[in-house]
Amino acid sequence: ESDTASEISFQFNKHKKTPSIGSHSSDMASVSSVSGSVLSVYSGDFGSVDAQGTVEFALDYDEKNREFQVHVSQCKDLAVVDEKKGRSDPYVKTYLLPDKAKMGKRKTSVKKRTVNPVYNEVLRYKIEKMVLLIQKLNLSVWHNDPLGRNSFLGEIEVDLASWDWSNRKPNWYPLKPRSLSAVNGADHRGVMNLSIKYVPPGSLGLQNPPSGEVHIWVKDVRDLLQLRPSGVDSFVKCYVLPDTSKKSYQKTRIIKRDTNPVFNHTIVYDGFHTEDLKDACVELTVWDHEKLTNHFLGGIRLGLGTGNYGISVDWMDSTQEEVAFWQEMMLAANEWIEGLLPLRSL
């Protein structure tokens, strides 16, 4: 079974009708056509490399300029992504948490064909010191792929409230796998590894694409609930809410007997104008397949959580992390945005 990229034409109705009292239904979304195609460019196993190696960096705060500085020196012994060619093309990315969309990400340059990259670059944030001290720094290393299939190589998270600010010298730190600390509670249902991208109308040339496109690339899911001894036969469903008809419905293939399934399935919805992004919600849910019925395992909702043209609906419950992920896509046109989001009950 080859990995597929499904494309759907998704049109928003610009005539917003006033709903009847007690009703939250809407004709905002309609789908004009559906087409499926196999795109070999999306095939392959990305993002499944085990984290290893170390990163050397230093932190400093410039009181005069009110600027937080991350001095990224180098990395050593990173994982090899392309084993056939024995290469990785690594870069370092930083966020300030918990609201990563507000301050945005910073990135170093890409160093090609090396697992021991040297950067000597400074990533800067304009931020007040008292605000900085309630943040956490997330520093991660990624392999850069020309087609946007970037692979995670490791990360470190620093609590800035307890950081020794007198220490301005670069130090070495071990790179760790993606942190699941935020989802290790009683309702832990696993995490989804995915990337999303918005391509505005005409951004690739004259009338190309003719309408805006939202690309959703479901890479893999980790730590799924195992409902029976034989494992779990999982697949992912996708809707663009408020349209829950078969017109916007897409799904991946079924991965059998695996609690860490790799899908590498990309869905493309066209017909999106930039202003539509604030009203739409992409719902991705994971299901265990059985002959008689499918069992819900968990899901995420990507959107601003503002409802249907301001009208309260039950799917305006996006978490802060899901909202930040969608916001970053809106602010970074034509750029793949990577995320690892916890599955939850919907």
Description:
This protein is mostly beta strands. The chain folds into two domains: 37-174, Immunoglobulin-like (Sandwich); 191-342, C2 domain (Immunoglobulin-like, Sandwich). It contains three helices and 18 strands. It has helices spanning 100-103, 129-132, 320-331; strands spanning 5-12, 29-37, 54-62, 67-76, 90-97, 106-107, 118-126, 136-143, 151-159, 171-174, 191-199, 212-222, 234-241, 250-251, 262-272, 281-288, 295-302, 337-342. Strands 2-1-15-12-11-18 form a six-stranded mixed β-sheet, covered by helices on one side. Strands 7-4-3-10 form a four-stranded antiparallel β-sheet, with no helix packed on it. Strands 6-5-8-9 form a four-stranded antiparallel β-sheet. Strand 3 and strand 4 (67-76) form a beta hairpin. The radius of gyration is 21 Å and the shape is globular. Mean pLDDT is 80; it is low at 1-5, 10-46 and 180-186. It comes from Apaloderma vittatum. Pfam families: C2. Keywords: Cell membrane, Exocytosis, Membrane, Repeat.
In the sheet with the most strands, the strands line up as 2-1-15-12-11-18
Structure class: mainly beta
Oligomer: single chain
Write down the CATH class of the largest domain: Mainly Beta
Write a brief structural summary.
The chain has 346 residues and is mainly beta. The chain has 3 helices and 18 strands. The protein has a 6-stranded mixed sheet with strand order 2-1-15-12-11-18, covered by helices on one side. The chain has a 4-stranded antiparallel sheet with strand order 7-4-3-10, with no helix packed on it. A 4-stranded antiparallel sheet has the order 6-5-8-9.
